[in-house]
Write a structure and sequence with these properties.
By secondary structure, the chain is an alpha+beta fold. The chain has one domain: Ubiquitin-like (UB roll). The protein is built from one helix and three strands, in the order E-E-H-E. It has a three-stranded antiparallel β-sheet with strand order 2-1-3. Strand 1 and strand 2 form a beta hairpin. The two termini are 14 Å apart. The mean pLDDT is 84.
Length: 65
């Protein structure tokens, strides 16, 4: 099953001063509806950006219909 979400988050690799800010719609496959809490969301986003979970700070996350 696919689910779309609006997300706004900051990605900053540990120990660096530079960061990237992202806003937009992401589409997740599979168990995306079971995500609960910012840490689980950060884990999924981090895998996509080849970062660590702690490198992602989720600011907003809303399911789209």
């Amino acid at each position: 099953m696919r689910a779309k979400f609006y997300t706004h988050f900051i990605a900053q690799a540990d120990g660096t001063a530079d960061f990237s800010e992202y806003r937009g719609v992401v589409e997740l496959l599979g168990q995306s509806l079971a995500l609960r809490g910012d840490r689980e969301i950060a884990r999924v986003l981090a895998r996509s950006f080849e970062l660590e979970e702690d490198d992602i700070r989720v600011l907003q996350w809303y399911p789209l219909h």
